[in-house]
Amino acid sequence: MAEFQIEREESGKGGRYVTRLEGAEAEMTWTAAESLDIIDHTYVPPELRGRSVGEALVARAVEDARRSGRKILPLCSFAAAQFRRNSDWQDVLAR
């Protein structure tokens, strides 16, 4: 997977992961609930699609969840599909 500079922005009870490439911005938003991060939306603009940008956003959330001992509930269909494709992420998947 390609490397992207991803920022985590927090606001209130959630936030977003964002990366900016070639003047375009991709994001994944999340909401926090107790020891759980709920991924509720992922958006990658057309000009950045096909470059694993969305997967990199989810992967960053997985890394952060592991570091903080939190679980992830992927309500966003894209994030849920990434969890199905990446069996090594199951340790942070909320069941």
General description of the model:
With 95 residues, this protein is of the alpha+beta class. The protein has one domain: Gcn5-related N-acetyltransferase (GNAT) (Aminopeptidase). The chain is 26% helix and 37% strand. It has two helices and five strands. It has helices at 53-68, 77-85, and strands at residues 7-11, 14-21, 24-33, 36-43, 71-74. A five-stranded mixed sheet has the order 1-2-3-4-5. The radius of gyration is 12 Å and the shape is globular. Pfam families: Acetyltransf_CG (PF14542).
Report a brief summary of the structure.
The protein has 95 residues and is of the alpha+beta class. It is 26% helix and 37% strand.
Q: Helices and strands in order, then pairings?
A:
Layout lengths: L6 E5 L2 E8 L2 E10 L2 E8 L9 H16 L2 E4 L2 H9 L10
Parallel strand pairs: 4-5
Antiparallel strand pairs: 1-2, 2-3, 3-4
Low-confidence sequence ranges:
none
CATH overall fold name: Aminopeptidase
CATH architecture grouping: 3-Layer(aba) Sandwich
Distance between the termini: 26 Å
Say which CATH homologous superfamily is assigned.
Gcn5-related N-acetyltransferase (GNAT)
Instruction: Record the strand order, biggest sheet.
Output: 1-2-3-4-5
Shape: globular
CATH class: Alpha Beta
Mean pLDDT: 95
Keywords: Transferase
Domain N-acetyltransferase: 9-94
InterPro entries: Acyl_CoA_acyltransferase (IPR016181), Gcn5-rel_NAT (IPR045057), GNAT_YJDJ (IPR031165)
Protein name: GNAT family N-acetyltransferase
